[in-house]
Amino acid sequence: MGSIAEIYDDYYRCYSATESYVIPLEVTRTENGTIEKVELSRFDINGFKNMFSKVKGSGKSYLNPTVRSMEDEKYLILRHKINGKSIAEISYSDQPYLQVGHSKNGNLITLPTLFYMYIVLFAFGSLCRYNPEKWNPFVRNDSTGERLLVEKLLYFARRMIPNMILNTIYGCRMCFVDEKYHINNTIKVVNEHEVKDLIKKELDFQRRIEEVGKNAI
Q1: Pairing between strand 26-30 and 184-185?
Q2: Domain, as residue range, for 26
Q3: Quick one: 198 and 110 in the same domain?
Q4: What's the whole-model pTM score?
Q5: Residue 118 half-sphere exposure toward CB, CA atoms < 13 A
Q6: What is the block-wise mean pLDDT of the chain (217 residues), using blocks of 10 residues?
């Protein structure tokens, strides 16, 4: 379940970020370009570096992550190389994330979300069918919060699997959620009058500098 981005927050509450195979990204659009950042409070720096190295294509796409304090929080800032392509996946709510691969016999394996969901659902189906003595008490009496994690996974599976099939049929991405992730845009859009006012202020400032220079001579 740690490979499914849509249940990352609940998975983190039950376990930890270092046991997850998802790195959620917060995207901010600035005047100097787009920044992808990771909230450092959820990650041990060494654990993050290990996870980041298992993201397929991370070395070709990104520069080395840097730590920066922003709004009283510490973040790992990820910047793309000049020719680095985006390797981020998009969750059901439109939030970008990096998919961490699984090491298997020296190879790095990354599967589509549909496969991860199918694997988990198959495991749940086998567990409730062949081991009811373990499954039934868990469903009825669990107090650890893990049952809520399972319920949330089943909710997203019901919503997402038909959606993925629909996307495949129509060859485009369709999204049917009310609360979608939005990029934080810090670029201020100005209108024509504001631009003229800024130019006028700059010209007046330069004119005053020239007058001060002449009087000094």
Answers
A1: parallel
A2: 5-185
A3: no
A4: 0.75
A5: 8
A6: 89 81 85 78 81 90 83 80 86 89 88 92 93 90 84 90 89 76 55 65 76 63
